Amino acid sequence: MDLIRSRFIIHGDVQRVGYRDVVQKLAIKNGITGEVRNLEDLDVLIIAEGTKEAITHFSNLINIQDFPINVESIEIREEPYTGEFRTFNIIRGDMGEEMAERMDTAIQHLSLIGKYSKTAANNSKTLIEMMQTSLQKQDQMLEKQDMMIDKQDQMLGKQDDLISLQHETVDEIKGLRKDSKSYLEKEFSEIHKRLHSIENALNDAGIKIQ
C-alpha cells in the first residue's frame, strides 16, 4: 500500500471560523492521520498521512468556500512518510486563544442563522402575498360565476314569461274559436228560421217550392 505524507498551508478566512474542526472530521472519515493547527499569520497548517488516493481526495475536500469558511489558496508540499500519528488531532493554543476562537465561531454561526432566518421570513412573506393574490383571483372568479348564474336566472325568468304568454295566447285563440262557433251557430239558426217563414209564406200564396 502506497502511503504518503503531505504538508498543507491553508490561506484565507480559516481561523476562528471552525475550520480545524471540519478538517479533523474529514480526515478521520477518510482514514487519514496527522494534525492541524493555527499559524501566527492567520493561516492553518495541516500535516496528513495516508494512502495517495485518500490524501488526493482529502486535498479537494479541505478547499472549502462555505460561509464563514473561505479558503483562498492551498500550498502543498510532499514529505517523507513517518507513520508517527495514530489518529488525527487538533493542536490547540492556550485557553484564552481557544475561547476567543470558539466565541468568534459562535458569533459567525449566529450571524448565518440570522441571515437564513431573514431569508426564510422574506420567503414566507412572499408566499403569503402569493396566497392572497390567489385568493383574490378566486374571489373574482366566484363573482363572475355569480354574475353568470344571475344572467341564467334572468334568461330562465324570460323563458317562463314567454311560456306564460304562449299559454295566454292559446287560451285566447281557444276562446275566440268557441265564440266564433257559437256566433255562427246562432246565425245559421236565424237564417234557417227565416227561410222556413219564407217557405210558409210562399205555400200560403199557392207557390210551391220543389
Task: Explain what this protein looks like in three dimensions.
- This protein has 210 residues and is α+β, with helices and mostly antiparallel strands.
- It has a domain at 3-91: Alpha-Beta Plaits (2-Layer Sandwich).
- It is built from three helices and six strands, in the order βαββαβββα.
- The protein has a six-stranded mixed β-sheet.
- The longest helix is centred in the C-terminal third of the chain and has 110 residues, at 95-204.
- 12% of the residues are buried.
Summarize the structure.
This protein has about 210 residues and is α+β, with helices and mostly antiparallel strands. It has a six-stranded mixed sheet with strand order 4-5-1-3-2-6.
What composes the largest sheet? 6 strands, mixed
Determine the CATH topology of one domain. Answer: Alpha-Beta Plaits
Flag low-confidence runs.
none
Shape: rod-shaped
Strand content: 15-25%
* Cα gyration radius (Å): 54 Å
Structure characteristics:
210 residues, alpha+beta, Alpha-Beta Plaits, 6-stranded mixed β-sheet, 3 helices, 6 strands, 62% helix, 20% strand
Q: Strands, helices and their partners?
A:
Layout: E1 3-13, H1 19-29, E2 33-38, E3 44-51, H2 52-61, E4 65-66, E5 69-79, E6 88-91, H3 95-204
Parallel strand pairs: 2-6
Antiparallel strand pairs: 1-3, 1-5, 2-3, 4-5
